[in-house]
């Protein structure tokens, strides 16, 4: 039991819960990287909703598509937006965002080597898709590294001036 005036006792209990549940925000650089992901996925959702076929926000920008499929993709991307925003605010949600992005990289890689994609490319190169997949994989690696660095700092007492 925590002794003291009720408000102080409550704030101490809340602080203890936050430490035990690891529900505090992630480290600054990781948080910024996650918010950058939120911005990216917002751009992707808008591009898919309006059929704006630009590389990076529309990975397979030059293949045939149906407009209704892109509307569905735009709504599905909202799940990524919510997942990354939640991870930017709550450290314990970060692993789920990283796993989702890793599975996305694997999925894009599978599409890039698929016969289905090859059949609509008519012999054109998949280099542009691989470059975009590589950039998303680099973002995944950055999040993984920043998360790992933040977890290491949890295991030691913070030093004066730490930004992690």
Q: What does this 3D model show about the protein?
A:
By secondary structure, the chain is mostly helical. It has one domain. The chain is built from six helices and no strands.
Low-confidence stretches: none
Task: State the share of residues found in helices, binned by percent.
Answer: over 70%
Largest sheet: none
How many domains make up the 3D coordinates?
A: 1
How many E strands?
A: 0
Q: From the alpha-carbon coordinates, what is the Rg to the nearest angstrom? A: 20 Å
Q: Termini distance?
A: 31 Å
Count, helices: 6
Order of helices and strands: HHHHHH
Basic shape: elongated
What structural class results from the helix and strand content?
A: mainly alpha
Mean pLDDT: 88
Beta percentage is under 5%
Topology:
Elements: H1 6-21, H2 28-50, H3 67-89, H4 94-112, H5 115-121, H6 127-154
Helix pairs in contact: 2-3, 2-6, 3-4, 4-6
Provide a brief overview of the structure:
This protein has 164 residues and is an all-alpha fold.
Q: Which structural traits does this protein have?
A:
164 residues
């Amino acid at each position: 039991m925590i002794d003291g005036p009720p408000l102080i006792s409550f704030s101490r209990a809340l602080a203890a819960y936050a430490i035990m549940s690891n529900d505090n925000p992630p480290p600054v650089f990781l948080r910024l990287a996650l918010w950058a992901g939120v911005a990216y996925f917002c751009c992707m959702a808008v591009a898919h909703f309006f059929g704006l076929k630009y590389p990076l926000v529309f990975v397979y920008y030059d293949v045939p598509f149906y407009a209704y499929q892109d509307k569905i993709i735009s709504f599905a991307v909202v799940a990524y937006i919510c997942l990354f925003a939640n991870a930017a605010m709550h450290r314990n949600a970060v692993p789920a965002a990283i796993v989702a992005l890793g599975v996305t990289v694997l999925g894009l890689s599978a599409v890039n080597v698929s016969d289905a994609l090859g059949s609509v490319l008519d012999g054109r190169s998949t280099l542009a898709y691989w470059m975009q997949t590589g950039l998303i994989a680099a973002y995944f690696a950055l999040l993984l590294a920043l998360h790992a660095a933040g977890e290491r700092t949890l295991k030691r007492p913070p030093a004066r001036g730490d930004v992690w």
